[in-house]
Amino acid sequence: MTATLEIAFVLPERIHLRLLNPDAFTIARIMRADVNGTRTVRTLSGQLPSTVTVIDVDDFEYALAGGPITYTVYNGANAVVATATTAVGPYPHSVVIGVPLYPSDGVTLADGTLDPATTTFAITWDGTRNARTTVHDVIGRPDPIAVLRAVALQSGSITLIGPQHLAVDDLAATLALPRVFMLRQADVPGLDMYFVVTGLGLTNIDGSLRWQLVVNFTEVTWPNGVYLPITVWTYADLAAGYADYNAVASSFADYLAVLENRPT
What we know:
mainly beta; Immunoglobulin-like; Elongation Factor Tu (Ef-tu), domain 3; four-stranded antiparallel β-sheet; 11% helix
């Protein structure tokens, strides 16, 4: 017997994985391989390693740019016990600013509709990788001495255009938080990155109600750590929104959809 990994549902914000582990293997980690590379799937604090028979994991960091996404589950002896592959997306023109350690702080800038009333457009990208190598001229010899260092990760700016001041100001408030962010977008494979914000500039566009936000960034490596769970709504919220059980049953595919407030 082996474990079975199911891809329960796929949303631009996340993929929900369900691992069925009837033989109570010690599940040590889950790895993801996509166009962005291979990386450990981040989990909740204390969730892995585990021997429970059903393990639910959300992946908030998968690539939106399409192509196969493969998940591989390893036990404590580093042996593969389950795999699953999905060819999600692409979600054309979708852009998400994720927050890997605090997923509930993430913001969807563009949901793919390109509706100018709701979409924040990324209009320019400027990224530079500074060299760290230093070159020293030595008296009496024609050739310099080079002290070799790796080139830095990129720094630069992204210019965003929002539909109105409130939307852009709310985005600026999110980007002002002391967080490591993740750019996830569907149109340019491999452009996704983890970054910190080094400056924000908000200006009005002359003759328009639209506003421009320039986000200065520095790219960083994958941040270590678990993530805080997303906010789950309460039964009081459910009762306020749906008149009776029949209304709930007709609006949600299953109990997990109710739990996570995902009406059909």
